[in-house]
Write a structure and sequence with these properties.
Largest sheet: 5 strands, mixed
Strand content: 5-15%
CATH architecture of the domain at 251-378: 2-Layer Sandwich
CATH class of the domain at 251-378: Alpha Beta
Oligomer: single chain
Radius of gyration: 44 Å
Order of helices and strands: HHHHHHHHEHEEHEE
Helix content: 55-70%
Strand order of the largest sheet: 1-2-3-5-4
Number of helices: 10
Length: about 375
């Protein structure tokens, strides 16, 4: 349905031209039948937007018929001619391309037919009539094309905005997943330490209660940290949004603290740093820590009575992180341990253009080594 403003405009235009046409015919002394044709030409403009081709055809016919019948000379039908031009403009402006072309052709043919009633029509007369009828058609068609272009641009803008919002939601979801995986790794590592500490406390509770007290204190500290991380993880999954406050992601600088946790759990660990420390990309920094965390957790769980050593070596453009242990216990380590296992660590390292090696040592024990470019990409 047309808006109220458009309906009022069309009704006002049709009414004004109808009055002008009737006055023109009356003052010209033409027959009442001519007045009927003139009124038909103008009144139909009230529906020029809803039925542009019908209005144009009726207007062209009502303008041409009295001229062809000799009821009124073509040069005297000024108001109906104006109505015809409005109808031609409307069919090009508001109809589809195919209908607009058909309507324009009908209007031009009707106008040229009316020229045949002239006393001595010339080629120039026909040319002038064709131009006179055609220019409002081209004006309407151009405006319609511009409107369609603007509508297409507006639609494209909406699509781009929707795509941007979708990408933003995907980025948030990806970030939430990453944080959830990181917290999962931390919690799993903490629980593994607590399990080992509990087992150690149970063994020495009767014989050396002071050592059991140390183990139980470590369990309490680790448990509180794990509980805090678990609350963060549950809040992340429950609220569906990124937590407001999260601890900074761990990196190479946190390996000493990690080794301290593992020592408290009963596995002696030494940490060595070789080369001159340089700036490390954030992703590589976090990945190096996760590799050490995974390897030490596996050593703690599977190596049995053993010692572990962590080496961080800075080369000119490469970071090498190595974790070895002297264990002799069963070692189903590939894919076991905290988080996603060594298989997950291999995927992380590969993501940053590095390589991860993991396997038994020739002289016993287990070795995990990750080599990553400091550029953070292949």
């Amino acid at each position: 349905m047309r808006p109220v403003g458009q309906r009022a405009l069309d009704a006002g235009l049709a009414g004004a031209l109808t009055v002008a046409a009737v006055v023109e015919v009356t003052l010209g002394g033409y027959s009442p039948l001519t007045a009927v044709f003139a009124a038909t030409v103008t009144v139909t403009l009230n529906w020029r937007r809803a039925y542009p081709l019908v209005v144009m055809a009726v207007t062209a016919g009502a303008w041409t018929v009295p001229i062809m019948l000799g009821l009124v000379p073509s040069e005297a039908a000024l108001t109906p001619l104006i109505a015809l031009l409005v109808a031609v403009y409307s069919v090009a402006r508001h109809a589809t391309t195919r209908i607009a072309l058909a309507g324009g052709a009908v209007a031009v043919l009707a106008a040229l037919a009316s020229d045949l009633r002239m006393a001595h029509p010339t080629l120039g007369d026909f040319g002038f009539t064709a131009i006179l009828i055609s220019w409002p058609w081209f004006a309407g068609f151009a405006l319609r094309g511009r409107e369609l272009t603007n509508a297409a641009l507006a639609q494209r803008a909406l699509l781009l905005e929707a795509e941007r919002d979708t990408r933003a939601r995907m980025a948030v979801a990806e970030e939430r997943g990453r944080i959830a995986r990181e917290l999962h790794d931390i919690i799993a590592h903490s629980v593994s330490v607590m399990v080992v500490q509990a087992g150690a406390a149970q063994e020495v509770l009767r014989q050396r209660p002071e050592r059991a007290e140390t183990a139980l204190r470590a369990i309490g500290d680790t448990g509180r940290d794990a509980l805090l991380d678990l609350r963060r993880l549950l809040g992340l999954l429950r609220d569906g949004e990124l937590p407001a406050v999260l601890a900074p992601q761990p990196g190479i600088g946190d390996i000493d603290a990690l080794a301290g946790q593992v020592r408290a759990a009963g596995l002696p660990v030494t940490v060595s740093v070789l080369g001159e420390a340089t700036a490390v990309p954030a992703g590589v920094d976090l990945t190096a820590f996760r590799v050490v965390q995974e390897a030490l957790t596996n050593s703690l769980r599977y190596a049995g009575p053993a010692e572990a050593a962590v080496t961080v070596e800075y080369a000119r453009d490469t970071l090498l992180v190595t974790v070895t242990d002297t264990g002799t216990g069963a070692a189903p380590r590939d894919g076991a341990g905290a988080g996603h296992g060594l298989a997950g660590m291999r995927e992380r390292v590969t993501l940053y253009g590095g390589q991860l090696e993991a396997g038994p040592r020739a002289r016993g024990g287990y070795r995990v080594a990750a080599r990553m470019p400091l550029g953070g990409s292949p």
